[in-house]
Amino acid sequence: MNLIDTHTHLFVTEFDKDRYEVINNAFNAGVSKMILPGINSSYINVQLQMTEAFPGICFPAAGLHPSDVNKDFEEELRIVENNIETGKFIAVGEIGIDLYWDQTFKEEQKIAFEKQVMLAKKYQLPVIIHVRDSFSEIFKITDKHNDENLTGIFHSFTGTKEDTEKIINYGGFKIGINGIVTFKNSGLDKIVKKIDLKHIVLETDSPYLSPVPKRGKRNESANLIYIAEKIAEIKEISLEEVAEITNQNALNVFGNNLF
Ligand code: NI
User: Fold this and answer.
1) φ and ψ at 205, to 5 degrees?
2) Cα gap 19→54, rounded to integer Å
3) pLDDT confidence tier of residue 143, bands split at 50, 70 and 90
4) Measured on CA atoms in the order 14, 16, 19, 22, is the torsion positive or negative?
């Protein structure tokens, strides 16, 4: 088995005690590559240490997470751009708008998202987009900037069938599916059934959203197999086929940077 976890935050403190063991476990469970989307500048050193310790396996992205946008976001965005310029980061993310947890900096979130979308285009990198209660705000910005130079992933997808159609019609985007698809009553299984597999990439979003049967525990990239198995069940195809197609989709987004 060979899977790509396109979204895993193994650099956060939840993994301080056993980070390298967790990466080894994931690799031994068939997760051959792990993409580490940024949150804020405080994690950059750990992201880079992991990349150096596991070359060709761990890949960092640079970005300011919407829930970490506050009045100092301009300074954080300068750091994001400085990091991108080093050439060590394979995407701009995770970026987006989150109106579920806190709306205090709603306007700043929109500005930070748009600026990072423009950075991604400037440096020809894909974006990793976080949407929470914010599809209309996000789409307003992606509508404005979408062209053949804008590519990426709508991560942790929980939208409607209409949302999937809009994302697919952009042309350069894939849809990130994680453990939510294994949750009873999430309804995501019915949406996934209707999306052609060529538009889907797999992710764990570790340490959050552990899939069934690990629900409620700390999530880790080794659990990606449960998400792949669920999609195989929904699509009534083999696990190998899920792995092969979703890996190709991830490679389409990240290109040669994923080696
Ligand atoms: Ni995330």
Assistant:
1) 60, 35
2) 12
3) very high
4) negative
Query: What spacing in Å lies between the alpha carbon of 241 and ligand 1's midpoint?
Result: 26
Distance 103 CA to ligand 1 centre (A): 18
Give 191-207 as a DSSP string.
HHHHS-GGGEEE---BT
Sequence ranges of the domains in the chain: 3-258
Q: How many CB atoms are located within 10 Å of the residue 57 CB? A: 16
Task: Name the residue among 196, 169, 243, 197 with its Cα closest to residue 5.
Answer: 243
Can you give the pTM of this predicted structure?
0.98
- 1: pLDDT strictly greater than 90: no
Between the CA of 203 and the centroid of ligand 1 the distance, in Å, is 9
* CA of residue 92 to ligand 1 center, whole Å: 12
CATH 3.20.20.140 fits 3-258, yes or no: yes
